[in-house]
Design goal:
Elements (H helix, E strand, L loop, with lengths): L1 H35 L23 H23 L2 H7 L5 H17 L1 H12 L1 H24 L24 H30 L9 H35 L1 H21 L15 H12 L61 H12 L1 H5 L2 H10 L2 H7 L18 H26 L7 H32 L10 H23 L8 H37 L16 H27 L5 H25 L3
Helix pairs in contact: 1-20, 2-7, 2-8, 2-9, 3-4, 4-7, 4-18, 5-6, 5-7, 5-18, 6-7, 6-9, 7-18, 8-9, 8-15, 8-17, 13-18, 13-19, 15-17, 16-17, 16-19, 17-18
Length: 635
C-alpha cells in the first residue's frame, strides 16, 4: 500500500509538471505573439460583457454593417438640416446672406472640430460604443428642439412685411431668446454629431484585424469604400426626399423627420451590440505624447546614438525577438525626439520616471503625428471649396430656372444630390474593378495608396472650382445683359466633379490617418483629425468671405462703384464668379503644396505603405523562427 501511495504521488507530481509545462507553453506563445507585434502591447478587444472577443462570433463585415447603417442614417439626418439650413436662416430667422453663410459654415465647422472631443473621449475614457450612444442622444435632442422652434411661431421672428415707406419688405432679425433657442438647438446637433462621426468610422474599422488575418487587410480597404457608399446613400436621400419634405411640408416637419431618422440610426447601433469587437479605453492618449516632449527637453544636451537599437525600448537582452522597434520603422526625421529614449547609466539601476525616459514606440508615434501635419493642412482648402457648395452654390441655384416639368421644381438644395447619384454606382465599381486591377499593378491592398488618392481628389477640386466660376459668369451675364434665367442644370458639372473629388480625398484621408496609430490605440482620435480638416476648411471659408467683402468693398468705394463681391443678397449684383476664380487659384496652389509634402512624407523610412509591407515580412519571418525555437525548447 505504501508503494501504491508513493506511485500515486509520483503520478500526481508528473501531471502537475505537465500542467505547469502546458501553461508555460501557452504563456510562451502568448509572449511570442506580443513580441511579434513589434514588441508593442497588443490591444485586446472585448465583447459587450468585457470578455475577450471571439473571432468566430465578433467583428467582421457583419458587425460593421450595423455601423454602416448608423452612418447612413446619421448623415441623412444632419445633411438634410445642414444643406438646407441657409434657406431656413434667411427665410425664417431673417439673417442677411453673408451672415447666414457664416452661420452655416461656422455650424458645420464646429461639428467637425468637436470630432476631436469625440475621438479623445472614446480612446481615453468611454470607448467608441458608449461615445456614440451618449452623444447620439445629444444630437437627437438638438433635432427635436429645432423642430419645436420651427413649429411654434412665438419662438421665431414675425414674418416679413412691406409696410415700409419705400415699399421694401421689412424683416426682423432673430434676437434675444429666439436666437438663443435656435443656436442652442443647432449646437446640440453639432456637439452630438461631432462626437459620433469619428467613432462610426473607427469602430467599424476596428471590426477587422489584419494583424491576425492578412485577408482582413483587403476587407478593411473594402470597408472604407463601403463607408463612403453608406455616406453617399444617406446624403442622396437627405438631399432629395428630406429636402423635398422641408420645402413642401415646412421646416418643422423636415427637422422632425431628421429626428426620426437619427433615432433609427441609434437603433441600428444598439442592434449590433452582441457582434462588436470593442477596444477598451486606454486612459489619456495625450500623456505618452507629452512625456516624449518633456523627456526630450530634459535630455536636450545628450548625444543620440547612431544605432537606434541602443535606444531605450528598442531591444531586450533576454530574447532576440523581443523588440519595441524593428529595423524598418524607426524614422530618421525629428531626431531630437530620440533623446527622450536615452537611458542614463549611473550604476544605480534606478528606474527613471516615464516623464524622463520614453520608449521608442512612444517616440515613433509622436514622429508620425508630426509628419502627417502637412498632409492634414493640405486638405483645408479642399474643405473650403466644399463649404461653397453648401452655401453660395445653393443660392446660385435659387437664382436659376428650377422648373423640371410644368408642376415640379427642383429644390436648389437638392443640387448636391447629383454627385451622390453618380457615386452610388461609381463607388461599388471602384471597389469591384479599379481596386483589384490597380492592386495587381501596385501591390497595394487599396489599389492606389491613400496619399495618391488624396492627391487625385485635390486636383479634381481645382477643376470643380474652375467649372463653378465659368458657369456663374455665364449665368450672371445672361441675367444682367439679356434678362434671361438659365436652367439650373448648367451648374451640375461643378457638383459632379467635386463629388468625384470628395470620394477620392475623403476616403483616402480617413484610411491614411486611421493607419497611422502604431499601437492601435488612437484610431478614433486620428480619424477625428480628418474631420478637423473639414472644420478648418469651413472656418477658412467664413474668413475668406469676410475678408473678400471687406477688401472689395473698400476698393469699390474708392472708385465710386457698388459694394463688395458678396455684399448683397442679389447674386446679379454680387461677383460670385470672381470669388470662385479666387478659390480655383488657391486650390491649385494648394495642390502643388500637397505634392511637395506627400513626396517628403513618402521618402520617410516610416511611411505607412512601405512600413506596413516591411513589418508584415518581418513578422511572418520571425513567427516561423519563434515557433521553431519554442518547439526546440521543450524538454
Amino acid at each position: 500500500m505504501a508503494e501504491d501511495r508513493r506511485l500515486q504521488q509520483g503520478n500526481n507530481l508528473i501531471m502537475s509538471k505537465v500542467g505547469s509545462l502546458e501553461s508555460s507553453m501557452n504563456d510562451h506563445h502568448r509572449h511570442r505573439h506580443h513580441e511579434l507585434m513589434g514588441g508593442e502591447e497588443v490591444v485586446v478587444t472585448v465583447d459587450w460583457r468585457g470578455r475577450p472577443s471571439n473571432a468566430a462570433k465578433h467583428g467582421g463585415m457583419k458587425a460593421a454593417s450595423f455601423l454602416l447603417g448608423l452612418q447612413s442614417f446619421e448623415i441623412m439626418a444632419i445633411a438634410a438640416v445642414g444643406n438646407n439650413l441657409i434657406t431656413y436662416v434667411i427665410n425664417e430667422m431673417h439673417f442677411s446672406l453673408s451672415k447666414s453663410a457664416n452661420i452655416v459654415t461656422n455650424f458645420i465647422g464646429t461639428v467637425f472640430l468637436l470630432a476631436l472631443v469625440g475621438g479623445y473621449l472614446s480612446d481615453s475614457y468611454l470607448g467608441s460604443f458608449w461615445t456614440m450612444l451618449i452623444f447620439g442622444f445629444v444630437e437627437l435632442s438638438g433635432f427635436i428642439l429645432l423642430s419645436v422652434q420651427a413649429h411654434l411661431p412665438q419662438l421665431k421672428p414675425p414674418p416679413c412685411n412691406n409696410s415700409t415707406a419705400v415699399g421694401e419688405d421689412y424683416c426682423e432679425e432673430a434676437k434675444g431668446f429666439k436666437a438663443l433657442i435656435f443656436f442652442a438647438a443647432l449646437y446640440l446637433v453639432a456637439l452630438g454629431s461631432g462626437c459620433v462621426k469619428p467613432n462610426m468610422i473607427a469602430h467599424g474599422a476596428d471590426q477587422f484585424n489584419p494583424a491576425d488575418n492578412p485577408k482582413q487587410s483587403k476587407k478593411l480597404s473594402t470597408y472604407f469604400n463601403a463607408a463612403y457608399f453608406a455616406f453617399s446613400v444617406g446624403e442622396l436621400i437627405a438631399l432629395t426626399l428630406l429636402v423635398w419634405v422641408q420645402t413642401h411640408s415646412g421646416m418643422d416637419v423636415g427637422f422632425g423627420v431628421s429626428a426620426a431618422v437619427m433615432a433609427m440610426g441609434l437603433i441600428c447601433l444598439v442592434s449590433g451590440t452582441l457582434y462588436y469587437r470593442n477596444k477598451p479605453p486606454q486612459r489619456s492618449i495625450f500623456t505618452p505624447i507629452a512625456q516624449v516632449f518633456v523627456a526630450a527637453i530634459l535630455k536636450r544636451k545628450q548625444v543620440c546614438p547612431s544605432n537606434p537599437h541602443l535606444l531605450h525600448g528598442s531591444q531586450n537582452n533576454d530574447n532576440a525577438f523581443s523588440s519595441d522597434i524593428d529595423p524598418f520603422n524607426h524614422s530618421q526625421k525629428f531626431r531630437f525626439l530620440d533623446k527622450a529614449c536615452i537611458k542614463i547609466e549611473d550604476g544605480s539601476n534606478t528606474k527613471e520616471s516615464p516623464w524622463r525616459l520614453s520608449t521608442v514606440t512612444q517616440v515613433n508615434q509622436v514622429k508620425v503625428l508630426l509628419s502627417v501635419i502637412p498632409i492634414f493642412a493640405s486638405t483645408i482648402v479642399f474643405n473650403t471649396i466644399l463649404a461653397q457648395l453648401q452655401t453660395f452654390s445653393v443660392q446660385q441655384g435659387s437664382a436659376m430656372d428650377t422648373q423640371l416639368t410644368k408642376s415640379f421644381h427642383i429644390p436648389p438644395a437638392s443640387l448636391q444630390s447629383i454627385p451622390y447619384i453618380i457615386l452610388i454606382f461609381l463607388v461599388p465599381l471602384y471597389d469591384a474593378f479599379f481596386v483589384p486591377f490597380t492592386r495587381k499593378l501596385t501591390g497595394n491592398e487599396s489599389g492606389i495608396s491613400p496619399l495618391q488618392r488624396i492627391g487625385a481628389g485635390l486636383f479634381f477640386a481645382t477643376i470643380s472650382m474652375i467649372s463653378a466660376a465659368v458657369m456663374e459668369q455665364k449665368r450672371r451675364e445672361a441675367a444682367v445683359t439679356s434678362n434671361k434665367t438659365l436652367s439650373i442644370f448648367w451648374i451640375t458639372p461643378q457638383f459632379l466633379i467635386f463629388g468625384l473629388s470628395e470620394m477620392l480625398t475623403a476616403v483616402g484621408l480617413i484610411e491614411f490617418f486611421y493607419k497611422q496609430s502604431l499601437k492601435g490605440r488612437m484610431q478614433a482620435f486620428l480619424t477625428a483629425v480628418t474631420y478637423c480638416s473639414y472644420s478648418f476648411g469651413f472656418y477658412l471659408s467664413s474668413l475668406l468671405v469676410s475678408l473678400v467683402n471687406k477688401i472689395t468693398s473698400s476698393s469699390s468705394s474708392s472708385t465710386g462703384s457698388h459694394g463688395g463681391w458678396l455684399s448683397d443678397n442679389d447674386l446679379n449684383k454680387d461677383r460670385l464668379d470672381l470669388f470662385y476664380w479666387l478659390l480655383a487659384g488657391l486650390s491649385f496652389l494648394n495642390f502643388l503644396n500637397y505634392l511637395f509634402w506627400s513626396k517628403w512624407y513618402s521618402h520617410s523610412p516610416s511611411s505607412s505603405s512601405s512600413r506596413a509591407q516591411q513589418q508584415d515580412h518581418y513578422r511572418y519571418s520571425t513567427a516561423a523562427a519563434a515557433a521553431t525555437s519554442a518547439d526546440h525548447n521543450l524538454p
